[in-house]
TrEMBL record:
The lineage of its organism: Bacteria, Bacillati, Bacillota, Bacilli, Lactobacillales. It comes from the Bacteria. This is GntR family transcriptional regulator. One of its GO terms (molecular function) is pyridoxal phosphate binding. SUPFAM superfamilies: PLP-dependent transferases, Winged helix' DNA-binding domain. It holds the Pfam family GntR.
Length: 480
């Protein structure tokens, strides 16, 4: 009876829900009848217990089953006969929701994070741990102070835009005029506005392969076609990019040239100049994601933004969330003034108002007299953690790894080919939470590690867990 048909593209927990519902509606499960235990269902379906719990929670919320202390999970007697009443099949509508489609591996990671203990090591989450986030002392602010701030227009809080402009001038030696800056509630809002205003359903966009953009549902929701372009140690490969541009009439090229997510690669200056030249020839704009700009381990002279090379053709996304914490939700987009005005107008029409609170706090941080020193100290700590994690990986013969020049991430490639489904499961079993390469493209041979989350106390735990996983994968490979 408990045989699950796992359909490609359908989350496993949804298949479990549909199976149990079909049994209830067909009379195979009667009102008041007890379901097998969560553990037994997990064994029947050959899935993680957390997946079964998720499915049962959904059925409880819908009212089809109930849980009684000491009695287990039973079919709700109050639902008897309800299946004969015509009702809207909301699930059919919700299946079209790109934002609701969660990969089973992601689902299990998120469950482990939520129910984690000291033995679970979260190197999956894409943000700084609390112990690294710089601390700033803010002046005493009253509610009236916020209400009286009137220096915000459709582009955002003017003093913050001016502070961002000054920081860019100091860091890279070029100016972003305050009128060319649109403050957003994080980098993803900037990306969302671009998709809504500058692109249309069916348009083609070229991105790096692998790329974190593959993991964002907003492209699928907007009907945008993503085409991955292979990369090497210098960044996106231009011969491959030009072929994609010609074959698919690409409308925009999106890149993360500095400390790329997920690989940590930094595009060389020669490749940056050539990329700008290529896109100029085809009159295609470049979207440059530079959210890790402040976390560079090398001189800024070696990492000049594409925006500096071509101010008019490059849309530039920056963020403070990577150094001040994701709850800050402050990002910005630098674009031609006419473009930013259209984006700001679209945001206003969608009623995406921008709160003055995070903008004011972000400006207070940027204008803090110790801001540069605190960011410099953060860089040193992040680099130290990166080197420690790199050293662990580098001495293992099974993994191929390079030390990044900045950012959060180390990309480790399994030297012996593709990793199988059971290999990925070993990471979960050991409580070593990483982002697998299939989140970011087609390949299944690498892992992304957020090394900022491995402090000195957790380094030995990280090494022990990785050695165990590596040994298990190796033993499996040798028996094939």
């Amino acid at each position: 009876m408990w045989s699950l048909n796992k359909e490609k593209g359908v989350p496993i927990y949804v298949s479990i829900i549909e199976l149990i519902l079909s049994y209830i509606k067909n009379g195979d499960l009667l009102p008041g009848e007890r379901l097998p235990s969560e553990r037994k269902l997990a064994n029947y379906f050959q899935v993680n217990r957390s997946t079964v719990v998720h499915a049962l929670d959904e059925l409880v919320a819908l009212g089809w089953i109930i849980r009684k202390q000491g009695s287990g999970t039973i079919v709700n007697e109050g639902k008897w006969g309800i299946s004969t009443t015509p009702r809207t099949d909301w699930r059919r509508y919700l299946e079209q929701n790109a934002f609701a489609k969660i990969d089973p591996f992601t689902e299990q990671i998120e469950w482990l994070i939520k129910h984690s203990d000291a033995d679970v090591l979260d190197l999956y989450t894409g943000e700084l741990p609390l112990d690294l986030i710089p601390s700033f002392s803010f002046p005493l602010l009253t509610w009236k102070h916020f209400l009286e701030e009137e220096q915000q227009d459709d582009l955002g809080y003017l003093p913050l835009r001016q502070s961002i402009s000054r920081e860019t001038e100091k860091e890279y030696g070029f100016s972003l005029a305050s009128e060319s800056l649109l403050i957003t509630s994080g980098a993803q809002q900037a990306l969302f506005l671009i998709l809504q205003v500058l692109l249309h359903s069916g348009d083609s966009v070229a991105i790096e392969d692998p790329s974190f953009l593959y993991a964002l549902p907003i492209f699928q929701a907007a009907g945008i076609r993503l085409y991955g372009v292979k990369t090497d140690q210098d960044g996106i490969c231009l011969d491959s990019l030009e072929k994609v541009i010609r074959q698919h009439r690409v409308k925009m090229v999106m890149v993360n040239p500095s400390f790329q997510n997920p690989t940590g690669t930094t595009m060389s200056m020669d490749r940056r100049k050539a990329l700008v030249k290529l896109c100029q020839n085809y009159q295609i704009p470049i979207l440059e994601d530079d959210v890790f700009a402040k976390l560079n381990f090398v001189s800024s002279d070696q990492i000049q933004p594409l925006k500096k090379l071509d101010p008019e053709n490059v849309l530039y996304i920056g963020s403070l969330s990577k150094i001040l914490g994701s709850t800050t939700k402050i990002g910005w987009l630098s674009a031609p003034t006419s473009v930013n005005q259209q984006l700001a107008e679209a945001r206003k029409m969608m009623d995406f108002s921008l709160s003055i609170f995070p903008q004011l706090l972000a400006n207070l941080a940027l204008t803090d007299k110790d801001f540069s020193d605190k960011v410099s100290h953060l860089r040193q700590n992040v680099e130290q953690r990166g080197k420690a994690v790199f050293d662990v990986l580098n001495k293992m013969d099974e993994w191929e790894v390079s030390m990044p020049k900045g950012g959060f991430y180390i990309w480790a490639k399994w030297k012996h080919g593709k990793l199988q489904q059971k290999d990925w499961a070993y990471f979960l079993q050991e409580g070593l939470l990483i982002a697998p390469s299939f989140f970011f493209g087609e390949k299944q041979d690498s892992i992304r590690i957020n090394f900022t989350r491995v402090n000195e106390e957790k380094l030995l735990l990280f090494e022990t867990k990785l050695l165990k996983v590596t040994k298990k994968i190796t033993l499996d490979s040798s028996t094939l």
